[in-house]
Write a structure and sequence with these properties.
Layout lengths: L2 E7 L2 H16 L3 E7 L1 H9 L5 E7 L4 H4 L6 E8 L2 E7 L17 H4 L3 E3 L6 H12 L8 E3 L3 H13 L6 E5 L2 H5 L2 E3 L12 E7 L3 H4 L1 H8 L5 H15 L19
């Protein structure tokens, strides 16, 4: 049996997609050694040859810069789903708030919370959100973007929905929150959110012989799709208790349960 090192970015939906890839490898008799790390660190590990399979690289916009230094050392195997970033609001926020520019006008100015709570700094959505804050002049109205953990971002949104508060969440498809809630994407005409990427399964060329042609052939036709991965992410988060947390009033700042 061959041991294969499979890495995924340390977010739950990346974990959910990695489990699907790992199931294929195990069916072909491989032992899987799995690991997780933040975006940039996981790509550095692959560049150093510390992992054989990466699930997955969002190409070209979100992760292309991280892959570029060692792109010739890897092969793109399949597109698992088609991710894209959004700034979203709960669907109970009035439809008059249709785009980012509407955040600078009533009724958003009267009720919208000014904190845009994101995830870690290396994520594409974090870079894009910082650009949106700047290019749309949102700081003039007090809006500000803050990086944090998965739970800082997702937990704040869940708490806001429970209380019908108006919030903007920097998010992406696919993700568990889309399986649970109706989230309306705000129009962003400057094109700062990167468009639709391809979530690409990457393997090191020097690991292909160990993976084997049969396993590679099955991986080449593996496609999860956005809707299915949102459901898989939701199921995984519930199974691992990732959304369990103290009440909003008692939760320490930054506290989280993480993968």
């Amino acid at each position: 049996m061959t041991t294969l090192r499979v890495g995924h970015i340390d977010l739950s939906f990346h974990d959910a997609s990695a489990l699907e890839v790992e199931a294929v490898l195990r069916r072909h008799g491989h032992v899987v050694e799995r690991s997780a790390a933040p975006h940039e660190e996981m790509f550095r590990r692959m560049g150093r040859g510390e992992i054989d399979v990466l699930v997955s690289a969002w190409l070209p916009a979100s992760h292309g810069r991280y892959l570029a230094p060692f792109q010739d050392d890897v092969r793109e195997i399949t597109v698992l789903y088609e991710p894209y970033c959004i700034w979203g609001v709960p669907d109970y926020v009035p439809a008059a708030i249709a785009g980012v520019v509407d955040l600078l006008k009533p009724p958003a100015l009267d009720r919208m919370e000014r904190l845009i709570q994101g995830i870690n700094a290396g994520a594409g959505i974090s870079r894009f959100s910082e650009a949106i804050i700047e290019k749309y002049g949102l700081t003039t109205a007090g809006y500000h973007f803050r990086t944090g953990t998965e739970q800082d971002c997702f937990g704040r949104f869940e708490d806001a929905v429970a209380a019908s508060r108006w919030v903007v969440i920097p998010l992406w498809h696919p993700q568990a929150l889309h399986h649970r809630h109706r989230i309306r994407a705000l129009e962003e005409p400057k094109g700062l959110l990167g468009g639709t990427d391809k979530a690409t399964l990457i393997v090191r060329r020097d690991a292909e012989a160990d993976i084997g042609q049969a396993a590679l052939a099955e991986l080449e036709v593996l496609h999860l799709g956005n809707e299915r991965l949102s459901a898989l992410d939701d199921a995984l988060r519930r199974a691992l208790g990732l959304d369990e947390r103290p009440s909003a009033t008692s939760r320490p700042a930054g506290a989280c349960t993480h993968l």
